[in-house]
């Protein structure tokens, strides 16, 4: 990182919007907010946005929480408490109850910032980076902040380049050759395309850079407006676009790649199918996301557990894992794993078979059980001999089964089995 970009990052505060439930993840978010959902064997979804900020040189961070926040707050306290206040570093957890004259819940993404302006001012940032806490990607934000300063933009919007057909489900930016945003359209039937490439469009990532004083000004103006939903995507950004002060920042310019990835990686793991696929994809020989690169680490809270163990070595009862990832504290006892991802402390017992299984921490699979294409929630205990993934109709009656045949299984569902 050059000195100019590092200096800009040091003058920036990151504000992470982490209050969303993520209802499309169904029972996975019954007890935790979407940003607190486990991902990749050791981490949580929010760790990617936070790690990007720290690796970019940003050491002042606020995290706005709301829905089912206990799991998220506990994770942040355990894994993200290494900042030093005497260096003007810190991570503040900001529940939706800061202002006594307001309702407790945040009314929208912009209101989540408005309610905490006094805290943000206390850090004295020159720039504010607004982040969503529920996406998987690696990005050096300092490039985006640098572009913001060089263009003199009122707001710079982070955008992911997607095929035109896929852009119909996003908020899409129509930009000119200088990256100035000409219009912003939500889920258009005919998405505008990028200059010089009529096959791809720029979709909003929910990432914004503002000069701090300007952001305070527009939020102060938005706050008393009863017609506003107090939301960045619905109110704040469109109004700045209309004034001609918004610029786009294509993700490809600041995406962090190790050399193994074939294209910039960004995923919204907001459905059970997308969540399962993104986790299982990590087991590929050349995964689309390289989480092994040490020059851009994904920081997290890591439990102190012993190494994974594989035991028994006889025909039909051999502890083995092929094309799989197995976290510490796991014991694969006389069972067979193929294309599986096991989080911390999982147990698989003798003669069981797992294929395409994402098992969250401390899940357990009993003897002679067969589990295929499934997500096991934390602490789920699959009974001995249970078969999952072979009878679609039976699976749909017992568990949450998606259109693509992925079963989401909670302990409550297991307990309801006859």
Summarize the structure.
The protein is built from eleven helices and 29 strands. It is an alpha/beta fold and 418 residues long. Helix 1 (3-10) crosses helix 6 (141-151).
Structure characteristics:
9-stranded mixed beta sheet, alpha/beta, about 425 residues, Spore Coat Polysaccharide Biosynthesis Protein SpsA, Chain A, 2 domains
Sequence-ordered SSE layout with sheet pairings:
Layout: H1 3-10, E1 12-17, E2 38-39, E3 43-44, H2 46-55, E4 60-65, H3 70-79, E5 90-95, H4 109-114, H5 117-123, E6 127-132, E7 136-137, H6 141-151, E8 155-163, E9 171-175, E10 181-186, E11 200-211, H7 212-222, H8 232-243, E12 246-250, E13 266-267, H9 272-281, E14 309-311, E15 313-314, E16 317-318, E17 320-322, E18 325-326, E19 331-333, E20 336-338, E21 341-342, E22 347-348, E23 353-359, E24 364-365, E25 370-376, E26 381-382, E27 387-388, H10 392-398, E28 400-401, E29 407-409, H11 411-415
Parallel strand pairs: 1-4, 1-6, 4-5, 8-12, 14-19, 17-20, 18-21, 19-22, 20-23, 21-23, 22-24, 23-25, 24-26, 25-27, 25-29
Antiparallel strand pairs: 2-3, 6-11, 7-13, 8-11, 9-10, 9-11, 15-16, 28-29
GO molecular function, one term: glucose-1-phosphate adenylyltransferase activity
EC number: 2.7.7.27
Binding site for alpha-D-glucose 1-phosphate: 106, 171, 186-187, 204
């Amino acid at each position: 990182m050059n000195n100019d970009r590092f200096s800009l990052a040091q003058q920036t505060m990151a504000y992470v919007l982490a209050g969303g439930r993520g209802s499309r993840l169904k029972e996975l978010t019954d007890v935790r907010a979407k940003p607190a959902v486990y991902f990749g064997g050791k981490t949580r979804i929010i760790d990617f946005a936070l790690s990007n900020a720290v690796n970019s040189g940003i050491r002042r961070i606020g995290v706005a929480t709301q829905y089912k926040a206990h799991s998220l707050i506990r994770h942040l306290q355990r894994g993200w408490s290494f900042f030093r206040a005497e260096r003007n570093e810190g991570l503040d957890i900001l529940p939706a109850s800061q202002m006594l004259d307001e309702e407790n819940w945040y009314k929208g993404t912009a209101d989540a910032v408005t309610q905490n302006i006094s805290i943000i001012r206390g850090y004295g940032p020159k720039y504010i980076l607004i982040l969503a806490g529920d996406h998987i990607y690696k990005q050096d934000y300092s490039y985006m902040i640098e572009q913001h300063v060089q263009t003199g933009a009122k707001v710079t919007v982070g955008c992911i380049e997607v095929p035109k057909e896929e852009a119909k489900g996003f908020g899409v930016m129509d930009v000119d050759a200088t990256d100035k945003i000409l219009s912003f359209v939500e889920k258009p039937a005919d998405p505008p395309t990028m200059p010089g490439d009529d096959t791809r469009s720029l979709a909003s990532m929910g990432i914004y850079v503002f000069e701090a004083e300007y952001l305070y000004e527009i939020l102060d103006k938005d706050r008393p407006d009863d017609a506003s939903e107090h939301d960045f995507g619905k109110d704040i950004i469109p109004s700045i676009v209309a004034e001609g002060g918004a610029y786009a920042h294509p993700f490809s310019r600041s995406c962090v790649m190790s050399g193994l990835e074939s294209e910039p990686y960004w995923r919204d793991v907001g459905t059970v199918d997308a969540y399962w696929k993104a986790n299982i994809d990590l087991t590929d020989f050349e995964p689309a996301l390289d989480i092994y690169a040490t020059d851009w680490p994904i920081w997290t809270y890591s439990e102190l557990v012993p190494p994974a163990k594989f035991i028994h070595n006889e025909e039909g009862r051999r502890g083995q894992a092929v094309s799989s990832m197995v976290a510490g504290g796991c014991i694969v006892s006389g069972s067979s794993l193929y294309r599986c991802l096991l989080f911390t402390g999982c147990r698989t017992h003798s003669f069981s078979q797992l294929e395409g299984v994402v098992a969250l921490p401390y899940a357990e699979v009993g003897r002679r059980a067969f589990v295929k294409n499934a997500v096991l929630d934390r602490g789920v205990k699959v009974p001995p001999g249970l078969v999952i993934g072979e009878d679609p109709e039976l699976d749909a009656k017992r568990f949450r089964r998606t259109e693509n045949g992925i079963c989401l299984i909670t302990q409550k569902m297991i307990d309801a089995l006859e």
